[in-house]
Design brief:
The chain is mainly α. The chain is 49% helix and 6% strand.
Length: 227
């Protein structure tokens, strides 16, 4: 059965701008937004988290105070640029707090900072923790795994597969430069659900034991390819 995977990246300029200002990974931010709100600026969760990066109102007020944002109101979280700006600051704050451990960062983003420190103490986790399967709460465990997986997909589609790094050969078939091989194969062998662009899928089809399943994917250029 054919499946369609669209890894859209709306608000890309704001995500890149505020990720850079806060020294965080823009591909991680894109994956967070995809899983939190699916890029819907007016999304509201059952527990009241708001906007693209699903920031709780009380957390938003704390972030605004820390950032020195004047005349902040809870309704500002519906503004895409401000939500991204505040969310990127918060991701950077969590990354610093958890000593650049992305798994703990994502646990904290989903379950809360206090809960994360509690799990660290109860389970003997240190700042080298990376065993996603041992996260106690199923929803958080699945969330962290999905965000980390989607981060790799965004990186692959929007960084590794830029047109200027791809060499066309014949009739829509492509080959990728040699310096991309090891990283692509490492990503491809990490998970059965990794999705590739048209060019990458064709390339891996020739060098990997696993045949990419049939799918369509929208590349950064907006063109949809079908394998």
């Amino acid at each position: 059965m054919q499946m369609r995977f669209v890894y859209m990246w709306d608000y890309q300029q704001d995500i890149v701008t505020y990720s850079k200002k806060n020294n965080v990974d823009p591909f991680l931010v894109a994956a967070i937004i995809k899983n939190e709100s699916n890029f819907k600026h007016d999304a509201v969760s059952k527990v009241g988290a708001v906007g693209l990066m699903q920031i709780m109102p009380e957390t938003g007020r704390w972030i605004a105070e820390q950032m020195g944002l004047e005349n902040y109101q809870d309704s500002d979280l519906y503004q895409t640029r401000k939500n991204i700006r505040m969310g990127c600051w918060y991701v950077g704050e969590l990354e610093h707090e958890f000593q650049h451990n992305l798994v703990l960062l994502m646990v904290a983003y989903n379950a809360g900072r206090g809960q994360t420190h509690e799990w660290m103490q109860e389970n003997g986790w240190d700042y080298n923790f990376n065993d996603i399967k041992s996260i106690p709460y199923p929803d958080t465990r699945e969330y962290v795994a999905k965000v980390m997986q989607d981060r790799d997909k965004y990186y692959l589609l929007y960084k590794l597969c830029k047109e200027d790094k791809i060499q066309r050969i014949v009739k829509g078939q492509y080959i990728l430069p040699d310096d991309m091989q090891d990283e692509l194969l490492a990503i491809s062998n990490r998970s059965e659900r990794v999705i590739f662009s048209h060019e990458t899928a064709l390339y891996l089809h020739g060098i990997s034991d696993r045949t990419p399943f049939e799918h369509t994917v929208t590349a950064p250029s907006g063109i949809t390819f079908q394998i």
